[in-house]
Protein 1
Amino acid sequence: MLLNMENISKSYGPVKANSDINFTLGKGEIHALVGENGAGKTTLMRILYGMEKPTSGSILVNGKPQSFSTPADAIKSGIGMVHQHFMLFPSFTVAENIVIGQEPGKWNGFDRKAAVAAVEELSRQYGMPVDPNQKVESCSLGVQQRVEILKVLYQGADIIILDEPTGVLTPLEVKELLVAIKRLASQGKSFILISHKLQEIMEVADRITVLRDGRVTGVVDAKHTDIEQISRLMVGRDLAQMQRSTPKLGAPVLEVKGLTMPGDRGKPLVDGATFKVHAGEIVGVAGISGNGQSELIGAIAGLQAASSGQVTLTGQDVTGAPVRKIRELGLAHIPEDRYQWGAAKDATVVENGVMGHARRQQRFGLMRGRSIRKMVEGWVKRFEVKTGSLDTKVQFLSGGNLQKLIAARELAQGTPFLIAAEPTRGVDVGAMEMIHGELLKRRDEQGAILLVSSELTEILKLSDRILVMNEGRIVGELPSDEATEEQISLLMAGGKRQ
Amino acid sequence: MNISKLKNGIGALVQPVVAILLGLLIGAIAIAIVGGDISQTYAEMWKGAFGSFYFFTNTLSRATPIILVGLGTTLAFRAGFFNLGAEGQMILGGLCAAITALYLPGPGWVKMIAALISGIVAGGIWSAFAGWMDAKFRMNLLITTLLLNYIASLFAGYLVAYPLKDNTGSAAMAQTKMIDHSAWLPKLFHGMSLHAGFLIAVVGAVLLFLYMRFTVSGYEVRMLGSNPLFAAYGGVQRGKLMLYSMIASGGFAGLAGAVEVLGTQYRYLDGSLSTPGYAWSGIMATLLAGSHPLGTVASSLLLAALQTGGMGVERNTEVPLEIASVIQATLILFVSAKISYSFIKRKKARAQDGSVV
């Protein structure tokens, strides 16, 4: 075997991200690594690429034990990684980006001609056409991907880790990439492919290793398996059924009709989304992150513009309306990314807590300091937000604690409609139960909730109806008592409904 | 809670204090290089700034326009944008105040108040113009505010050199006629240069502090500056709020010009507002104070003291006036070092946000 990772374990404090993982890779093999978010794929690859040290276990390349403490060590041993988000300099040319770190030199520095020649040679050898003199910023994402792979090849990698390589590509570019991967493998390069898209994996991989909760739940030959089996291995746990009363549906609160949002290169980010959320129900949106959920939420909440379609909230057209108007009409919003949208890091707990409440908590334009503090203090107590004081800057709060504060703030808006995007990301089990309980309570009080989550368990536990998004389209709608995790993961991965 | 507040306060003070000490240290080296006596020079500097009641009030009066400009910059920085156009806004404010006081009929106090208001309005409009270009044409505020300075300064220079030129006196200076005595800002003490503008500046600082701290829109301005996406998400109307902050920011600078004209110069004299570098001192004061309104008052006083002290040094020693500029420049260098340091830290944090799933 070219690569042996033996009994790799990695703990972060009490959390075991990897336990006893064995992973092998042969010469010319394409080995896919799959699993849900947080299953431990990332940690394993970070260990292989020298970005993390394993707590225990060993890595052997060509039978020789290796210890990587930086990516540079890993690169020396012939391991290269193409990250999900490209690491290129947009204003530099393709050739400059590829040779960076090992630039051909001459007496007066960088030898541009040699670099271009080297890139041309490389591009011919591996059959990946690029124009060495083009600037990266004017390349399509598919070409940028190629540049990334060529960069890794230029560094002399025999083992190439591809992290979600097709996430940003158009279907045609995906096809080209898969063909290129296969050709490179036939030339003796080995690939580790991390992906959520099971169809692509079935198409290209030789072997598939499935991780769940930091453990290997299966290593299967791609020839002898199918998407259903892999989905089961990925999910494979019994759900703790929470008692949910039957929903008492009221009038529709949110109506979305034909919502479409343009993407970068002809591929719309949201493509004709149409659905309703009624009072007294939770509608879950399932999907692999990056399939248009963020943009859908952005359009409903007034943060992003849609190119066509209509959003109606409590009977009023709010398409393209300012956020304040939408909020006044009845929107509360637990945002997906707590640091980007949900908080101001260098503001205090109180200041972060009062957003959206300030205009209600005022007299003659002055904030009612005492009642605001009391309100925020109440949330801090109830949600057990661990903070030094109400005047601590939230950058000193842990992510989970900040999430609790944000959830409390938005639940307290008391609006008829609530967007809960990844409402429990990074919070501990106790707080998760509490937030879930609050969401269900809101629903029983005739609130309408749109729940967006990449955690299937969360979706299944809370939703009355489930919408599945794939590549910007709503590809399925299932009542939650009929839906199974396998069925949803299949739809999420772009598979067909049974 | 109070302890953590106190700690924050002390933490915020460490940087400027260290910057000041380093500034004085490098100033000492410069003094030694030009062959001056370090302790004597600093003693003269102290005397020049605070040595007597006369010098002290002189320092306060020098600080007045710096404070007002600094407050405007503070508001802009807090709202999250740059306003480097204080000089132009100040010039137009001063010019409009002079014209109003000269040509508006009525009793002196009416002229004075109208002149102050016209100064605010002129500065505000000039600043809002840059804001409008940003909103409409996506022109970078940093550049527009900076370049509008030249337009304002040269335009004002033209007006006082030709149509509004004072031809009554013998001197062929580019200046307006002198404003009637009744419209002057009253002096606070007989025979001293300190005028009521200083009180206006201090009251302005307190009002700005209270506004930022206790009002809803002050809260929104702070959140806009702290994380514009968070503000947008929470329903803060960015465009409107930004325009208002721009107007207010320019209004402060315009008021600085008006106060200087009505309290010290009594006419608009070409170059009288730009040569002493009030606007840039004001921006420095803001940086030094970390955009805190009351801190800006303190740092403006410090910068004014450096300048008046420098004059004292020049009067009584062989050391040139520029020594004060050396100290001032060093101060800014070390304060901006903090800014770029925290900027780098933020960049690093972003890079570590993880690119892998």
Protein 2
Amino acid sequence: MNNLASYNWLKEYCKTDLSVADFARELSLRSMSVEKVDDVAARFDRIVIGLVNEVRSHPNADKLRLVTVNIGSETVEIVCGGVNVASGMKVCVALPGSKVRWHGEGDYITLGESEIRGVKSIGMICGAGEVGFAELEKGEKEIWDLSFVLAVAGTNLAVALELEDTVFDIEVTTNRPDVMGIVGLAREAAAAVGGQFVGKQPTVITPGTGIPFTVKIENTERCARQMAVVIDDVKVAESPWWLQKRLLLAGVRPINNIVDVTNYVLLEYAQPLHAFDYRNIEGSEIIVRAGKLGEKITALNGKEYDIGGHIVLADAVKPLDIAGIMGGNETGTTEATKTVVLSASSFDATSIRRTARALNLQSDAQLLFEKGLSTEALPIALARAVELILQTAGGIVASAVCDTRVKEYKPLVFPFRPEMARKRIGVEIADERMQRILEELGFVVNRTAEVWQVTVPFWRDHDIEVEVDFSEEIARMYGYHLMTGVLPAGNPPTTQEPVAIIWERFIKRQMAAAGYDEFFTYSFTNVEDVVKYGDDVATPYEILNPLVSEQSHLRISLIPGILRAIEGNQGHTRAAKFFEVSRVYLPTVNDLPIEETHLVFGEYGYTDATSVFRKLRGTLEMLANKTGLEITLSRGDIGDKWHATRSANIIIGGKIVGIIGEVSEKIQQRFGVDLRVFMVMLEVENLFEAMKLTHRYTLSSEFPAIMRDLSVIVDERVEFAAITRELKNDLLTTVALVDVYRGKGVDGGKKSLTLQLTLQATDKTLTAEEANKVIEEVGEVLKTKFGGILRS
Amino acid sequence: MENELRQLLAEVQARLLGVNVLADLEVVRIEVLGRKGKLAELLKGLAVLDINEKKVIGVVANEVKMGIERAFAEVEDKLSAAAVLAKNESEWLDMTMPGVTPEVGHTHLTTQAIEDITNIFAHLGFVRARHPEVDWDYYAFEAMNMPSDHPARDDWETFFVKGEKGVKGKMVLTPHTSNGQVREMEKGVFPIRMISIGKCFRRQADVRHLPSFYQFEGLVIDKKASVTELKGVCDYFAKSYFGPDRVTRLRPYHFRFTEPSFELDVSCSVCSGTGKVDGVKCKLCKEGWLELGGAGMVHPNVIKAGGLDPDEYSGFAFGWGVERTMMMRAGLNIDDIRILYKNDLRFIRQF
């Protein structure tokens, strides 16, 4: 909630000599944040009062006039399109160099001298909107008639209209609706900036007798107090300028003196009031009740609402307004109103909130009511409104001051232990200082015992709930900025980082080191993607109130999001290595989802599937080696998400924990990816517990190794693992696959494998003869067991 | 003999003037200094001399030999330097060719920020914790002193998940990491110094908001936690993360789950906390300050929800957006937060 507060108005209730900047800073540090400071007069630089001498027609334009205006020091001629400009009228003249908004819209622009249809024009005669008061616009082509102003021609507008003021835009926290009013803000400000709060009691209403009137609360759960008073013989008219001005600076449109007074009191005391035309209330009674089933009302915004079950103010036959939210369209005051019923109510905050939500209807009054307002603000606000109506619209109080409440008011009292507050704040603040702070804010302190008794003022009866609330009042008024920070004392905790966090970090670092770039895809998915990926739409959790339809469900796999990311990149990055470590949300029965961390890494945009598979497998094995896991791959029924002969399950500890494979062309194409994608998906969540950092050293042989390359042509489907299983020899330490070749010199259905054999003994240097013998044996095995043809 | 020796030296020096390649130099060297070379031949004459003459000639012979060797060395140096130069000239490289970036991968900017944040708090003894991203509204709200229908819940534009209502309420996507506070206390191990960094969700998306983002939640529960300790931790973090020249301030605020509550502001990097750039209002901040996020002393009702006695235990907590914090670091220059999760590799590879 933001409060646009006039400094001049504020100073009527808070005596302070602080400059605008100091006031704003001190208030922000101890109370509410001042987000903007608006120097009102600065808006009206070079805008002055002009007195119209003469109005002539424009020689070249029917709709324009030439107006001779006295602007004090001189008389100038201005071209003007205003339909109501007349000689003898006081107008608002914007001189060259001033800032105005064309037709009251858009940004402010700096005015220059201009020529309009061949006639030179010095400045501009403005409509109210053009100098920032769009709320006062009567017609599009009307200029602002300032004849009511006493100031002479040439007087600066800010001076003439008493607009030498500052408006603070203050963010008021939701627990403090009282600070939405000038009086509440002044009380805060006085305590915060060291000013003096000036409390003023409005004139007590003198009850009248002419018109009998009563109020009744039928729904005692949702309304705690209802007041009303009738004022007869009012003259509904435009409000005096001083009143309009205050509404305008707060961004409220002036309507008529009756409505304006209720808005003025709202701004001053943060207590909504409503004014009804007495003629529209049948039965001389306001009844607070629940709306009947099917009951409807047309609100001030012209829309009809079904108010069945919602709380309303009603008369004997019909609803009068949607209680606490908006008045009825036909029951408010108009220019013909002679008798006004002023109503003040106290509603249950939750009830107002539910109704506002159900009807999707908001108002300034509702925003305050739903924060929780005190029953005790009603008589003060009502008295202030009566005082102002009598002052601005005349009339007399014609009824008793009707007042009914559900139960007697008892101020809240809480115990307070100064020692606990000092401990909580961490600063030695003296008892006297604490007492003074609380009292400045309106609390009544009783210090007769070690545990103090603190009485809460009515305007805080919704936000003070527990003893520690007082420590906040004391701490903030003492000033957080004056406290010295210290690092926490006490023992550090004994808990350990969860394994999931340790390994997630480890995996991310390893993946980046291995050349993979990290994606961060959203946890959301949607029906379309789930279907495209071939999963059951009933499986993922559904979001009841998604922001957009693309984010309607929670993902059960990282892969669709990653395919979308690839699709987004393929236009500018034709090949890449990527990874993501993040959670998926797997279904349970009537419980929270199982949040499981998955790792996906892969590569897209390659031409050589063999080499990509080997790189991904190598990366997978590196991760496994570093974390003490043993991985095997197994072809099997993997389903049509993956390439039928280029995919395998990843098995750790006898369980399938992931897949390595090329994404099937069907899935790839459904996601609009036009490049092949090879991926590893690993359900790492289930591996974290078993992972351990392996730091084991294996002794290397001190004797030289002999390396020999051997190329052999075998059938396409001869597996490398089958070959190495057969090549058992103590001297043969490794068999590496250097190259797989197909093409010229190798028949179709065959492939040429280049193996690099490393021969080494742990106890001696091998001779060439010994090495040759092993190589010969290997060649023999390749020929006899695999039908291989050795290439020289 | 002395003359012959000196003549040999002069002769060699003259000859070497005409040698231009190292191979020729070797030929001359063998001719003069070889076992059967000219010098050796001359010195054979020493044998016939008497002892005094030997002494005199010996000195001369030594001088001449050194002179010859020096002459060879000089020529050799000159010729090999020329040879190296010639080789280098033939190996000319275009030094204006563009560099090839090493093929390293990139962790996401957010991952990097999470690591930085983790490390800073680790110095103060804060241990990472892990909590659900989909949780019961009891943990997100009720336990955080926000009963159902409380208007404060409006501040968290919450996503609800379809499903049966459980004993702990409705299922929600956690709108803040504060759901971890009571969950951490329920573990029953004290004191707590937790830093929980997790994904949160809110129904808003624009240049400053993402529907899914990360927060880091700090929670201290101990017997003597105080506002001044919270202030100390905030300052330590801000100075470590943003740099020693940035200033912080605590500004009063209101949250249901903390009392007192405040927001932590950090001085703006663009206008150096003055609120003005070249006399014009700074576009990034409010009057020289940037809001980092909320903090406060844990509300006694939250302590109670965690199963502790608020008269015995107190605590403080803070929850700040990872992306927001990261973007407040000087110089990052990201003006639309949504770029972070577009997964554009050209973006990811810049960090």
